[in-house]
Amino acid sequence: MELSDWLLTTRDRGNPATRLDRRRPGGTAWAHGNHVRPLVHGSTYFRELLAAIRAQRSGDLLLFTDWRGDPDERLDGEGTEVGGVLREAAARGVIVKGLVWRSHLDGLQFSEAENRHLGEEVEAGGGEYLLDMRVRPGGSHHQKLVVLRHPGRPERDVAYVGGIDLCHTRNDDAAHHGDPQSVPFADAYGPRPPWHDVQLEVRGPAVGDLEAGFRERWEDPAPLTRSPLVRLRQLVHGEDEHADTLPPQAPDPEPCGTHTVQVLRTYPNRLFRGYPFAPDGERSIARSYLKAVHRARTLIYLEDQYLWSPQVVEHFARALAAQPGLHLIAVIPTVPEQDGPVSLPMNLVGRVTALERLRRDGGDRVAVYGLENHAGTPVYVHAKVCVIDDVWASVGSDNINLRSWTHDSELNCAVLDSAEDPREPRDPAGLGDGARRFARELRLELSREHLDAEPPPEPGPDPVPSSSGPPPDPLCDPVRAFGLFAESAAALDAWYDGGRRGPRPPGRLRAYRPPELSRATRAWSLPLYRLLVDPDGRPLRVRHRDAF
Fold first, then answer.
1. Distance (Å, rounded) from C-alpha 227 to C-alpha 222?
2. What are the phi and psi torsion angles at 522 (to 5°)?
3. Cβ pair 159, 145 in contact under 8 A
């Protein structure tokens, strides 16, 4: 397998201004020799993050970006509020630098005040925190990243990247009883919305790439906002408009694993004054998806908050049409987070039209599911995960929609493992690309949770694969896994349809049945959806070609 078959070359990225692809001899566009670990659920990530921050000492570096930050969100019980943890780190001499979206007004169900208060905590300890509104109109900084560097102790260097913000509602676990510290949400999720999410722990040279991406944003000389009202408020609150200089970047950590990692971003074509590191924007997340989807032969496994936008899913639909053996599983929220009379149709119309497009070419090879906990409460799926043919895996902040692929800032990591999965030495994709351990294990971990399935016993040393019949774990076979998802959801749906008589079947999957939208509802909600919910951040010349 050639890495360039699945990953973007420097030319493929389409952004010669970034330093990411100039950091290594020969302009290699990815980092070899990493160890990446998926942290499924906010509680898992928050415990790991807390321990890592508390182990930092004077002179270490802590960099973070976020969409929302709640200073009182507890990472692991009383006394672990994120604002206090960051303040204490700064007070003991850790160099703490934060870049958080300034956000829209709280009255619009955003987080302006919370993000400002987290900054006050950080700065009280001596750290620096910038409220960043250098986005397109109506856009946001959606990246979720923490980088921890340790001069003199590089073996401790680590970065966390994915879908989990440092805020309320995220601290849930596999039982999905929800975070006690919640935010207002659709009624269907109850007072403590169950929450499903994924973050990556990255160790090795890719930590340097993620830090370099942070530095590009930090060193952007443009004003943090163009709004005269906001700039006046900055003066009133005494907010710092200028970023202090960061210490020089340390050498990358040494290789420590078998994972090749490519850092991918979205930046919009920022109006009037582009990003110096992406003057025309960057759409490497979109381009990476398209390259990988083009190679899909057996299974595309998605977990996504939205799965919107006919323009985006068109590429998945074409792959389904071109490959009659290709299947697609998508795990999404059963109910959007906003269920008002105007917001609900705007949130649904993009999804409904996208699913119609997928099913037109994929038919019964497309399966879409929602999740619930064992009490029957829907679980809000906030994860942003894609696994293709158990070879290529992507985890990050982006959703499958036009906003994430073109308009807001986003951050993903694509991972290719040089280690093949010993349970499946065959070639499931028909491309000479055997299943890779990281991608397969990620899909299996998520699938087992949704199916309430236990992993099979560990094989003995040097297992000899059978030349016929299924592998030891039926979930390893992508087509069999597709059938197991369908069987589990059908059993649970039948239990509900039968009045919930007898024991509840195992599993948490429910077949997603999109609501009917009348022609009149589509007529008024689709234009609003395109304008407000899923805008396009591409340059006009690119948009007119319908390219990324």
1. 13
2. -65, -35
3. yes
Contact 528, 263 (CB under 8 A): no
Report the SS3 class of residue 415: strand
Listed residue (99, 100, 88) closest to 53, CA to CA:
88
* Tokens 């970006």 found at: 65
- Cα(66)–Cα(411) distance, rounded to whole angstroms? 11
Helix 284-295 and helix 310-322, axial crossing angle in degrees, nearest 10: 20
Sequence-distant (6+) residues with CB within 8 A of 314 are 357
Is the four-CA dihedral 463, 468, 474, 479 of positive or negative sign?
positive
Residue 108 half-sphere exposure, CB side, CA atoms within 13 Å?
Answer: 7
Apex CA 487: angle with CA 484 and CA 490, to 5°? 150
**548 residues of the chain, pLDDT tens digit each:** 799 999 999 999 999 999 999 999 888 999 999 999 999 999 999 999 999 999 999 999 999 999 999 999 999 999 999 999 999 999 999 999 999 998 755 444 445 677 788 989 999 999 999 999 999 999 999 999 999 999 999 999 999 999 999 999 999 999 999 999 999 899 999 999 999 999 999 999 999 999 999 999 999 999 998 776 766 666 776 666 789 999 999 999 999 999 999 999 999 999 888 999 999 999 999 999 999 999 999 999 999 999 989 899 999 999 999 999 999 999 999 999 988 888 889 889 999 999 999 999 999 999 999 999 999 999 999 999 999 999 999 999 999 999 999 999 999 999 999 988 776 645 544 444 678 999 999 999 999 999 999 988 776 665 555 555 445 799 999 999 999 999 999 999 999 999 999 999 999 999 999 888 999 999 999 999 999 999 999 999 999 998 99
* Per-residue tokens: 183: 């935010």
Are residues 28 and 12 in contact, defined by beta-carbon separation less than 8 angstroms?
no
Measured distance CA(449)–CA(21) in Å, rounded: 37
DSSP annotation of 472 reads S
Tell me if 361 sits within 8 A of 318, measured CB to CB: yes
Q: What would the DSSP string read from start to end of 335-404?
A: S-S--STTHHHHHHHHHHHHHHHHHHHHGGGEEEEEEE-TTSPEEEE---EEEETTTEEEEES--SSHII
Query: C-alpha 453: how far from its chain's center?
Result: 24
**Could you tell me the sign of the dihedral formed by the alpha carbons of 208, 211, 217, 220, in that order?**
negative
Which tokens go with 198?
Answer: 């994924």
Q: Where in 197-243 does DSSP place strands (E)?
A: 198-203
Residue 378 and residue 370 in contact, taking contact as beta carbons nearer than 8 Å: yes
Tokens 């774990």 belong to residue:
473
Distance CA 374, CA 227 (A): 47
Characterize the bridge pairing of strands 95-101 and 128-132. parallel
Helix or strand holding residue 46 (H, E): helix 42-54
> Cβ–Cβ contacts within 10 Å for residue 343, how many?
18
SS3 188: helix
**At 65, is the secondary structure helix, strand, or coil?**
strand
Distance CA 528, CA 521 (A): 11
**Residue 147, H or E segment:** strand 145-149
For 84, the enclosing helix (H) or strand (E) is helix 82-91
